[in-house]
Amino acid sequence: MSKRFHVLVLSTLIAFASIVAPLWAQESAPAPQTEVSAQVAAAAEAPKAAATGSKLEKAIATAPVGTEPGQIDTAKPAGFLGIPGAPQINPIMALLWAVWVGWIFSTVGAFGGVMAGVGHVTVFGLGAYAKGFKSTAPDLNKTVTDSIRASNQFLVGLSALISSINYGKMGRLVLPLGLALGLGSLLGAWGSATLSAGKVSFSAYQGWFGFFVLALGCYLFWETSPAGQAKKVKAKQAAQAFEAAVKAQKTGGGPAPTGVKILGITVSKVQFTFCGVEFSFNPVLPVVGGVVISALAAFLGVGGGFLLVPFLTSITQLPMYLAAGTSALAVLVSMITSILTLMTKGTPVDWMLIGTEMVGVAIGSIVGPHTSKYLSDKLLKRIFIVLAFYVGIDYVLKGFFNIRVIEMLFG
Amino acid sequence: MFDPLLIWGFRLLDSPWGGFLTGLAVLSLLCVITGDVTSHLARRLNRGVYGRYRDEMVHQHNLSVQALKHSDKDAYKAVNRQAHEAFGKYFFSQAGAFTLSIWPLPFAMAWLDIRFGGVPLTLPFSVPGVGDSVFYPFFFLPIYIAVRIIYGRTMRRFGFYQRILTWSKHGDDTQMVPFIDLLKPSSGDDTRPEGDPSDGPENATRK
């Protein structure tokens, strides 16, 4: 095993420990513990009700009790996060929706996180439930919103883990760049989660989520437009031409220069040649990019990897071999930081729901590649453009202006 | 339904702390084994698709290395773009397979939350920035990671597990050409590939 891999594992463990440790530190003052061992033994002997975290309990305590919207109906059975009267998420529905998310994840890629969010917000009715507490119990509104964000990120962000580990093993990380990007990601994810945890109302979250989905829809639209397609076709043709030239042994001339030659390093520009090919990038950009992308991903509860890879490729022109592993490391740092920062703030997570959804995502991801051959990439993208525009516009209007698209169109 | 099975490990030792930590290790092992079995099944089921995605990614990558060897920046950019697309497909397919290896973890967390959620555990020493009181995930997640690593390393030593790995393996044996190779002194062969013209650059390292 390479030395680099050991260094990577060690640094990841140290980073993990430093972030994880405070998470389970005792935040609220508990009852004095004199016989902790006995408590552990007692817990092992007698099942107890799920603890939902002091933040949630406090938020529930501040909510008015009653049967109206925006009130806690204590007579009803416990629903999401154990809140009495909260939506009861049917596990079969959760599984089926997650299969859909996994299918999209494996066929289109970027849209999986969005669909996970749509499931939590709209399909399971958590959005409307959280929104009901906007004026009656703002703390509960924000706590449920944070839980939705953390749940989204659990579902979509974990995929970075495998990439980081595998690429780390293969020594395919540009460590200085990965660390710069990772540092930016750490700052962005921590800052975003710390500044926004417990402060974002559901409406604001929904509005920004919708805005992001709209932007994604516009990007997908551009990709399928003649201009976007032309660029893609041109790249494909150039690649094929080169491949043909290699096969026909028509390439080359004199011996290719080897090695890296640094042409100049300034604060704003690193210029070098690699095998005689000139490259340059701004060294500040990876840090700034890491901050911005991770902050956005942490705020919205999305993965962020699909933003980092194109960013790395276009800014640094980094080869796939290196960009993929490097961005995976940054996504991993960002994901762990934002989820744990949210949880440190007492954000409750419904583990049973996450587990059920994870099984669904896995099933969908297995089925996806087998079914995608019956649908062209372009058609799939167009379907998602329509979905993106509908979801994006609906969420922006609902979140920022409290207008429902359906009601606006059909009265 | 699973409670008696899962709590079993926690009662193996009489000492409360010993029993607690052993129970977490046994639970972690159960999660790792269950996840590993389902992950191998999925990989076997999808090995054709995963293999195609991987081979395409490796092929495009190796072609981009060739482009750099020829100092052809335009070709490099074009091929690298194709390599990124191929990587995207492979990445998302592997993410799905990975999810199948960790799916038991959240269920274990849910069960632990029912059993130990909210029970503060006092450490025999104080950890800077943490104090001496923690909750169950403080122990469970590191133990899960450790068990996963030990399990992976131990199992690879067994012949039957090697056969399972081969059974669920995808793609051919072609490896990505490391960029470090480009830093080595040129032999002169890099610019004019010899041999059968039908040999693509992907065959450069094919065993």
Description:
- The complex is a heterodimer of chains A (411) and B (207).
- With 411 residues, chain A is mainly alpha-helical.
- Chain A is built from 17 helices and 3 strands.
- Chain A has a 3-stranded antiparallel beta sheet with strand order 1-2-3, with no helix packed on it.
- In chain A, strand 1 and strand 2 (270-274) form a beta hairpin.
- The N and C termini of chain A lie far apart (65 Å).
- Chain B has one domain.
- Chain B has helices at 3-7, 16-45, 47-69, 73-102, 104-116, 137-155, 159-168, and strands at 121-127, 131-134.
- In chain B, strands 1-2 form a two-stranded antiparallel sheet.
- In chain B, a hairpin with a 3-residue loop joins strand 1 (121-127) and strand 2.
- The chains are: A mainly alpha (411), B mainly alpha (207).
- The interface between A and B is large, with 93 and 105 residues.
Short account of what is shown:
Chain A has 17 helices and three strands.
Brief descriptors of the model:
heterodimer; A: 411 residues; mainly alpha; 17 helices
